[in-house]
Amino acid sequence: MVVLGKTAQLHTRDPIPQKHGAVSAAAAHQWLLFNPMEKAEAETLFEELKARLPVLSLRMRASFRIGPYTELATTNVETYNGPAPTLIPASFRPTPLWMDASMTSEQVGWQDWLDNCPAIRDEGLLAALSLYVSAKDEALPRSKFLTYLTILDSLAVQWSRDAAAIAWINEKRKETVAVNDKSLSGALGNLKKVSHGAAVRALVTRAAKAQGYEPEEIENWDKQARDLYKVRSDLSHAGESVILDVSAAQKTAELVLEQAVLDPSLLDPPVVKPEEGANAMSPAGSTENAAAPS
Question: Is it the case that residue 215 has pLDDT exceeding 90?
């Protein structure tokens, strides 16, 4: 097969049952053996794979992983640690030794998708994509739900309220009641920025607009984000018994991730127009990209 313009052979390790049941017993561990190339080419290819695989996982709704390895290993013998990406002298016949049972479900046609996946360099977006991949391993609905909401939380940047609102808050913090109650003063200070919930809703709305949804559909996405955040708040802070809509949380996270991959400026917080008040906002970046392929 051809992967990012380089010819490679795809090998599959014999299936090994996953003890904790998070992955199907039919899961497979695959690895690529590329045709000989210059060391610099191999290093560049490895970096491209690291930057593109998270997007591939998102678009194929799968889990593609290189593992915890951030650099290429080297070997001067034919045997090497199978899970570790390794530079091998072209004169050797590579023989992997498997000491790691990490696996992923087999997917077909991924190499064609990979060519169209952008390389992501933003650390925050990469971290969010990694969380999306890790959610596949979660066995409990609660864990999955919180992971998807954490993705939204991590990408939703709070922004400052307008100058008039901040001035009002500062005056309230000077009043005797606030001066004598540090926690109240701190809570008032936190109001200088919009809430996390408002930031999440605004991000989801921007993503829905970028996807090209109609106004009524955008309102539905906004309502769904509000409902999800309320459930997460009740679950995390109040410990209440709540109904978890894991599917809605996953779809909302996917909407934001797909549009952020196409245009990372989507993650920029809105710009408040001081002359029109705290509710008058415009996006900091353009969101005119087309929808991601499904």
Answer: yes
